[in-house]
Specification:
- The protein is mainly α.
- The protein has two domains: about 1-35 and about 275-353, no CATH class; about 40-270, no CATH class.
- It contains 14 helices and two strands, in the order αααααααββααααααα.
- It has helices at about 5-20, 50-65, 65-70, 75-100, 115-130, 135-155, 165-170, 195-215, 215-235, 245-270, 280, 285-300, 305-320, 320-345; strands spanning about 180, 185.
- It has a two-stranded antiparallel sheet with strand order 1-2.
- α1 (about 5-20) packs antiparallel against α14 (about 320-345).
- The radius of gyration is 20 Å and the shape is globular.
- The two termini are about 20 Å apart.
Length: about 350
C-alpha cells in the first residue's frame, strides 16, 4: 500500500499541536484550551498525546502489515521494531537526563512521552505480527476492563492517593514528574500502570488502520461515534482523566482520533486537499525531540527569558495582554520548527530512529 499523505498530515498536525501547547512564553498566561485539565476532565490539549499514540498504531497497520502480506519473515520484522523502540526509549531517557544536568532545580525523571511511545510501538508491533484481529480486540478489552478494575480496587482516584500514583512512587521513587511536598508521594502522567491503557489507545489505532487499508470508511465513522458515546457513558463511573489515562479517556480520545483520521483521509487522499502538516509528520521525532532539547538549552543558557520579554512580552502585552504575548511566542516556536522540518524535507533529511 502506498504511503498515505493524510496519515503524515495527521501525525504532523499532532506534533505541531504538541509544540504549541508545550512551549508558551509564560506558563502563568495560557488560554484554557491550550492547557491540560488540572485533574478530571478533558481539554483539547489532553487529546494531543493520545492522538499521537493512536497514529502509532495506524502507522503499524499501514507500514508493517503490508510487508507481512508480501511474505516478509516475522523474526526480522520484530527485531527491527524492537530496536527502533529501544532507540526511542533511550532518546527519551537521554533528554530527561540532559534536563536534569542543565536546568536549575530540575530533578531526574525516568518515565516520559518518548518512553511511552517506544513501549507502545513495540507492544503493538508484537501483536500485529504474531496475533489475529480477534486476539487484538481481546487484548483491548482486557486492558480496559482490567485497568478499570485495578483503579476501582485501588480506591480513590484523587491525586497522590490513587493506585497509579502509589505504584509510580513505589517503582520510581522520586524520579517522576511531580512530587507532593506534603506527603512525599510521586506521580507521573507517563508512569508505569498508565502505560497499560495507553497500549489500548495504540491498539485501537492499529484496528482503525486496518479498516483504512480495507477502505472501510463507513466502519471508521461508526467506530468513531461509538467510541465517543461509550467513553462518555464510562465517564459516569470513572471520569475522563489524562493523568490516570482512565478507560473512559481511552475511548473518548480514540473516538476523536478515529474521526480525525477519517476526515484527513477523505479530504486529502480522496479530494486532493493539500496535506497540511506533512513536513512535521515525516520528521515527527526530529521536531518533537529537537523542540524538547531547545526547551532545555535556551533556559540553561539564560536566553529564553530575555528573548521572550524583549521580543514578545514588552511589545505585545500593553497592546493585547499577557495571554496573547504568551501565545505569540508559542506560535513563533511552531513556525520556527516548521521552517526547520521544511528545510530538512527539501534536502531529504529524515530522522529515522
Amino acid at each position: 500500500m502506498k504511503r498515505l499523505a493524510s496519515l503524515d498530515a495527521l501525525r504532523g498536525c499532532t506534533v505541531a499541536a504538541m509544540l504549541l501547547v508545550n512551549d508558551p512564553g509564560d506558563w502563568s498566561h495560557v488560554y484554557a484550551p491550550l492547557d491540560h485539565a488540572v485533574w478530571d476532565g478533558c481539554t483539547p490539549t489532553d487529546l494531543i498525546f493520545p492522538t499521537f499514540l493512536f497514529v502509532v498504531g495506524v502507522s503499524v497497520a499501514l507500514g508493517l502489515l503490508p510487508r507481512l502480506d508480501q511474505g516478509a519473515p516475522h523474526g526480522p520484522l520484530m527485531r527491527a521494531a524492537l530496536r527502533r523502540a529501544l532507540r526511542i526509549v533511550a532518546l527519551g531517557v537521554a533528554i530527561n537526563g540532559l534536563a536534569w544536568l542543565l536546568m536549575p532545580g530540575a530533578h531526574l525523571r525516568f518515565p516520559g512521552v518518548l518512553q511511552r511511545i517506544g513501549v507502545c510501538f513495540a507492544a503493538v508491533a508484537l501483536l500485529a505480527i504474531y496475533t489475529r484481529p480477534r486476539t487484538q480486540w481481546a487484548a483491548i478489552a482486557l486492558l480496559l476492563v482490567g485497568y478499570a478494575t485495578l483503579l476501582w480496587w485501588g480506591g480513590s482516584l484523587a491525586p497522590w492517593v490513587n493506585i497509579t500514583s502509589r505504584v509510580d512512587s513505589a517503582v520510581f521513587g522520586r524520579f517522576v514528574y511531580l512530587i507532593d511536598p506534603a506527603s512525599g508521594r510521586g506521580h507521573d502522567p507517563e508512569g508505569l500502570l498508565g502505560t497499560l491503557p495507553s497500549l489500548a489507545t495504540a491498539l485501537l489505532g492499529l484496528r482503525a488502520g486496518c479498516w483504512l487499508r480495507q477502505g472501510r470508511t463507513r466502519t471508521l465513522l461508526i467506530a468513531g461515534v461509538g467510541a465517543l458515546l461509550l467513553g462518555a457513558l464510562w465517564a459516569l463511573w470513572q471520569s475522563l482523566n489524562k493523568n490516570l489515562w482512565t478507560p473512559s479517556f481511552v475511548l473518548w480520545c480514540a473516538g476523536w482520533s478515529t474521526l480525525a483520521l477519517l476526515l484527513f483521509h477523505v479530504l486529502i487522499d480522496r479530494y486532493g486537499w493539500p496535506p497540511l502538516g506533512r513536513r512535521f509528520g515525516i520528521n515527527a521525532i526530529a521536531a518533537y525531540a529537537g523542540s524538547e532539547l531547545m526547551q532545555i538549552v535556551l533556559p540553561a543558557l539564560g536566553w529564553q527569558e530575555p528573548l521572550y520579554r524583549h521580543l514578545f512580552a514588552e511589545p505585545l502585552t500593553p497592546l493585547a495582554g499577557a495571554y496573547v504575548a504568551s501565545l505569540a511566542w508559542a506560535l513563533a516556536f511552531v513556525v520556527m520548527w516548521w521552517l526547520i522540518v521544511y528545510a530538512m524535507d527539501r534536502r531529504r533529511w529524515y530522522l529515522k530512529l
